Amino acid sequence: MRNASAIVRVCMAGLLPSFLALVDAYSTLRAQAVDHAQHAANHADKTPARHALDSLDADEIQGAVSIVRKGKQLADTYKFVTVTLKEPAKGLVLHPHQGNSIAREAFLVLLDNATGKGYEAVVNLGTKAVTKFEALPDAVQPSITLDEFSECEEAVRKSPEFQAALKKRGVTDMSLVMVDAWSAGHYGNEPESDKGKRLVRSLSWVRSDPQDNGYARPIEGVVAVVDLNRKEVLRIEDHGVVPLPPKAGNWARPSIPTVRGDLKSYEVSQPDGPSFSQNGNEIQWQKWALRVGFNPREGLVLYTASYDGRPVFYRASIAEMVVPYADPKVSAYRKNAFDLGEYGVGMLANSLALGCDCLGTIRYFDGHMTDSKGRLITIKNAICLHEEDFGLLWKHTDWRTNQSEVRRSRRLAVSMIANVGNYDYGFYWYFYQDGTIQMEVKLTGIMNTQALKPGETARFGTEVAPRLNAPFHQHFFNARIDLDVDGEANTVQEVNTRSVPSGPDNPFDNAFDTETTPLTKEANAQRNTNLLSSRFWRIVNNARKNELGGPVGYRLCPTENTLPYARPGSAILKRAAFVTKNLWVTPFRNEERYPSGDYPNQHPGDDGLPRWTKDNRDIADTDLVLWYTFGQTHIPRIEDWPVMPVSSAGFLLRPDGFFNANPSLDVPPPPSGM
Q1: What's the whole-model pTM score?
Q2: Which of 224, 355, 477, 619 lies in disulfide reach of 156, CB 3.0 to 4.6 Å?
Q3: 146-255 topology per CATH
Q4: How far apart, in Å, do the first and last CA atoms of the chain sit?
């Protein structure tokens, strides 16, 4: 393993001080752009046979772009917002017809800047045919592309009105101003002139020098509304001058004069190599088998996870996340970003570095996509695969026989980290030897900031440095889990623990039992966690029994969670209705993929889960999808500044009657002397 100083150099080389630095540097630091014209569309023919769920490779992406561009004679004004795998029907994957291959297809979202129209396209990569090319409804806006962030910043910096607003605040060097393009959302009070336009509402900060942490000095009260199609500022909203906060908040290594000197080296060594094997995107580890995928919107996606040959889930991903803020000021209340649906965490994935993001014997997966011009972008090492020691798996000592045994837990980690502006999110899926699956999001990075007037008290945030306010906010994530517990016909049960009333059944007032309720319709499957009843949900297969006669199952175990504090009827709860319930259950439908709908950017809401579940469909003994919403309410601390120590949120899927006993009894004991 490399020495500590070498690792520090590698880790620091990957640090990007802001989202816009990522935009400016992605072509040289983590991406490879290749002109589509240099690659013929027939590259698709040269692609080796691949699994139906494998993400598009570089040649397939370039082939899809070329086929659409030539087949539809697209003008240069067309942007390629998304190029990704069109996943085949689940039934075809799980139950293929003998002798019939599954077509490899690409799904594309395009935007014509000249007209503002969006389009969906599908390309059959085998026949090189465009099988679908349809305009999106006029009100639909595709997600914001990576280059639109830099285009927005350039337009804002050049705006005379913006420069005049900053001059009033003593800011004259535009090269030190950083502009973050916040999604505009939809609040029902937009000016008539905004309708039909592709908008962002940008906020700004100023650095004291090129390497300064700009988030330490917010330019308060100035909002630039930008038309992304025309690349111009529509208006500057100036809500009054607030002096810049006085203190720097630098966090990078050159700004820390003294570091701890008593930290000894720590090496993770696997001299015999890892215990997992890899065949393309398929992973085998212990008794687990699964497939790894990647797309620009969700980033890391997992498919067909099974334990000892028995299926657990077909597809699992984080399908949406939203971050609503608490400040009601006119310049701040619209800060409610959908980081997947309006941006895409796959587009923002980091290139991971050994010794920084992952330790041990690592296997990496690259992420392939395009920029808006249709040129190939490859994010090297976008996904990390490795093993981790996780302490005790189980232990018991029998003092009568002097018999003592212990097993150490090892887990398989599949992870991705994305930089979304000021925040950084790590997405980790863990697989354990006892059949448990864990999903953990690690939140870190820099909090969004606002300036306080001299003498002003922060009511809707925490003053983390002199006159620097970190507003209260929440992080919500929605995991879409297409469970197939020992088969596709599953039912969800809710389990609540309750005290038994005093009486003959509880003469000593110590008794408690559980109440199990099957959730058979979509309406009664919209549920929240309950700490008082230790609520969890069991997903069972009534057609498969364990040796005690009960249905095999898995248990969804909530961990820390929260609910929204926005009031009913608020714009954010219309647009992100999924956050109002921790659990939703729907029958599987291939087209139902995202909890707030396919296109939440500037959408008024009531799409996705609230629309689908109005039909109150049956969900008993059927192929179903769990949508679990989890998150945190972040009341900032001073210790969260200038960069936030990791905070975690997530859930567990644990076997519940799936096995006849502890399935990890056969894990060998650790070598003696360890």
Answers
A1: 0.93
A2: 224
A3: Nuclear Transport Factor 2; Chain: A, (3.10.450)
A4: 20
